[in-house]
Amino acid sequence: MVTLGDKPLVTGRHAVFGGTFNPVHNGHLQTALELQRLLAVDSLGLMPSARPPHRARPQASDAQRLAMLELAIASYPQLRLDCREFARSGLSYTVETLSEMRREQGDDVWLAFCAGMDSLLNLSSWHRWQALTDYAHLVICARPGWSMSELPDGELRDWLATRLETDVKGLDGSVAGKVLVVELTPYDISSSQIRQAIATGESTRDWLLPSVTRYIQQHGLYLEAG
């Protein structure tokens, strides 16, 4: 297994923001833009999960979620799509994705995987979760006022304690191996709430871009609660 945490940074910075994006909403976009600026990457990749093993299959198809993402980022050149998980058969494991990205980029390129707070809280249920930082830094977008006490006692908390950074500059000395928990601008909405609102006929104007709303309406998505 390749361990890159102690390797010096040589050149290049790459970061992706993973999620189901079911559907992509304004909170996703604002978080992605903040991450792109915070991590000082030329562009941030939005990487939709094809078949995440820890979640039910998304209501929208892979192609539909991809189409909504394309519409959502059309006006943001600093955001891009990374669709590699759609090309993989079977379940989608983040550690395999990061291993693939590391092979592509080489051992001297700075790499970060960004995810939401729920991912950290459930991390110990992920496939080979301890190996994630062998290939990349892990950047967690936390809720305001989060604390280590939210994590269950045991292996996850111990693992995090040896890798945790409190400032983004702490990621600059190596190409992988650290965990940064950042508090970004809060956006009090979730994709599940939006799906529920659509199913019950409520307005989603404040949460979705008009282009995404039109696509959802044209394709009759999320008409059933769930």
UniProtKB/TrEMBL annotation:
Q: What is its EC number?
A: 2.7.7.18
- Keywords, A to Z? ATP-binding, NAD, Nucleotide-binding, Nucleotidyltransferase, Pyridine nucleotide biosynthesis, Transferase
A GO biological process of this protein is: NAD+ biosynthetic process
Domain Cytidyltransferase-like as annotated: residue spans: 16-196
Q: Which pathway is it part of?
A: Cofactor biosynthesis; NAD(+) biosynthesis; deamido-NAD(+) from nicotinate D-ribonucleotide: step 1/1
Output the InterPro entries linked to this UniProt entry. Cyt_trans-like, NadD/NMNAT, Rossmann-like_a/b/a_fold
Per its record, the protein catalyses:
nicotinate beta-D-ribonucleotide + ATP + H(+) = deamido-NAD(+) + diphosphate
Task: Tell me the Gene3D superfamilies matching this sequence.
Answer: HUPs
GO MF: ATP binding; nicotinate-nucleotide adenylyltransferase activity
- Name the source's superkingdom: Bacteria
Annotated function: Catalyzes the reversible adenylation of nicotinate mononucleotide (NaMN) to nicotinic acid adenine dinucleotide (NaAD).
Concerning NCBIfam families, the annotation shows: cyt_tran_rel (TIGR00125), nicotinate (nicotinamide) nucleotide adenylyltransferase (TIGR00482), PRK00071.1-1 (NF000839), PRK00071.1-3 (NF000840)
Q: Which PANTHER family match?
A: NICOTINATE-NUCLEOTIDE ADENYLYLTRANSFERASE-RELATED, PHOSPHOPANTETHEINE ADENYLYLTRANSFERASE
Identify its protein family: Belongs to the NadD family.
Q: What is this protein called?
A: Probable nicotinate-nucleotide adenylyltransferase
